[in-house]
Specification:
423 residues, alpha+beta, 7-stranded antiparallel β-sheet, 4-stranded antiparallel β-sheet, 14 helices, 14% strand
């Protein structure tokens, strides 16, 4: 379905539409997981900010004083203009404010030199509500893995089967941990979000992230679903974005550390960073957290995580970074920012991102500011611009899942904002 056939951001506003309002809500305004309401537009405009009410989750706990995010709100950002990428259906220059509506933004927060220069919420999202981060989750998992590699706890050259014997007869068995971290695993796994029969949706059904049809007889957990994925080409070749790879990496982290993902994110990030709200992860029916896309967090906390990376892995709970606590080794941040193999990325078909690469489950743009990003379907993002000293955290509920539908009005907008802040 073409974008112009969907109601725009204003017409699909979940509050105006009355989703889940009333005691009980009207029958035609109730959203249920079982009938696909968490995946269908315009219901997703409410559901993405309320998944804890609709799906089982496990908490990612914060602790202690909240770290400061100083306010320095500016009124000159909305009028910034940029030109959308060519051949995107957007033929005229657009303002920053217009881009927020075009991308069905639920929340946007811009940090410049550690200060909030813009913070906006739309629809059902509020500052104290968590929103699904989708595949931004992968960047948390990739960062954790890179930290374990850096401290010697995880050998990037070790084989998957050495850590997870249960996958000995799967397509993952002879892939290395580095192959997982850079998504260069030779498996058969379709990530086509428009095809309800694609492997990505079979994986989601197995993990209770997507409703199962009547008579379903397939796998009933994420880990069970991974065992039947075959290999179809040598590992270590071209980049292929496949969510199942992150699920395997999350399993490896659990085996190596003896801790589940929710504990790792809590103890490595959420507690030492002084986050404002508990986050959560969706879980399958065995209680296993979804490593590929299940993270939910508040917008300000997503920004705090991005700011910590921008500062080279340093953070201080009081907002003073002069003597801040080292959360992540600077070498890990440098490895992410340096990026991966561009030639391996070039064949993957991301025409909106020429010259980009993928490293430790981060998207590296290799533009003139050295920007890199965590990205999730429907508009989720953490965008870090080291040169402009800028971090953008965004949640969205775009009707079309793939980021190719948002990149024409997101990537140039982010870069234009960065240049404006520098000026």
């Amino acid at each position: 379905m073409a974008l112009h056939t969907y109601p725009d951001a204003n017409a699909s506003d979940p509050v105006h539409m009355g989703w889940m309002q009333g005691s009980p809500p009207p029958t035609d305004r109730i959203i249920r997981f079982a009938d696909g309401g968490t995946t269908r537009f315009p219901e997703i405009r409410w559901a993405f900010s309320n998944l804890r009410q609709l799906m089982p989750t496990i908490a990612v706990l914060r602790a202690g004083p909240i770290s400061a995010l100083p306010m320095a709100v500016r009124d000159d950002l909305d009028a910034i203009t940029f030109t959308p990428l060519p051949n995107s259906g957007f033929d005229t220059p657009m303002t920053w404010q217009q881009s927020l509506a075009a991308n069905y933004t639920d929340g946007i927060l811009v940090l410049h030199r550690g200060q909030i220069v813009q913070e906006r919420y739309f629809g059902a999202l509020t500052p104290d509500r968590v929103h699904i981060a989708m595949s931004v989750t992968k960047s948390y998992v990739g960062t954790l893995a890179a930290m374990l590699v850096a401290d010697g706890s995880l050998d990037p050259g070790s084989l998957v089967a050495a850590h997870i014997p249960e996958l000995t007869h799967s397509g993952f068995a002879t892939a290395t941990i580095r192959h997982l971290m850079d998504m260069r695993v030779g498996i058969t796994f379709s990530e086509d979000y428009t095809d309800p029969n694609a492997a990505i949706w079979n994986y989601a059904r197995a993990g209770s992230f997507w409703p199962r049809p009547p008579g379903y007889t397939g796998p009933t957990s994420f880990y069970e679903s991974l065992r039947s994925i075959p290999q179809d080409r040598p590992h270590g070749g071209d980049f292929r974005y496949q969510t199942a790879i992150t699920e395997v990496l999350g399993w490896v982290l659990r085996r190596v550390t003896g801790q589940p993902l929710e504990t790792l994110i809590s103890t490595r990030f959420w507690q030492p960073l002084g986050m404002e709200h508990d986050a959560c992860l969706t879980v399958d029916e065995t209680g296993t957290a979804m490593a590929g896309a299940g993270f939910n967090a508040a917008l300000r906390d997503q920004a705090r995580f991005g700011e910590m990376l921008r500062l080279g892995g340093t953070a201080n709970r009081l907002g003073d970074t002069a003597n801040g606590q080292q959360i992540i080794s600077p070498a890990v941040i440098a490895d992410i920012a340096r990026g991966g193999d561009r030639s391996a990325f070039a064949t993957a078909g991301y025409n909106r991102m020429p010259g980009a690469s993928y490293r430790n489950m981060w998207w590296c743009l290799h533009n003139d500011h050295g920007a890199y990003a965590a990205r999730g379907i429907h508009g989720q993002a953490i965008y870090i611009d080291p040169v402009a000293e800028m971090v953008i955290a965004r949640f969205g509920s775009h009707p079309m899942a793939a980021n190719a539908n948002l990149d024409p009005t997101s990537l140039p907008a982010f870069h234009a904002l960065a240049k404006h802040l520098m000026a």
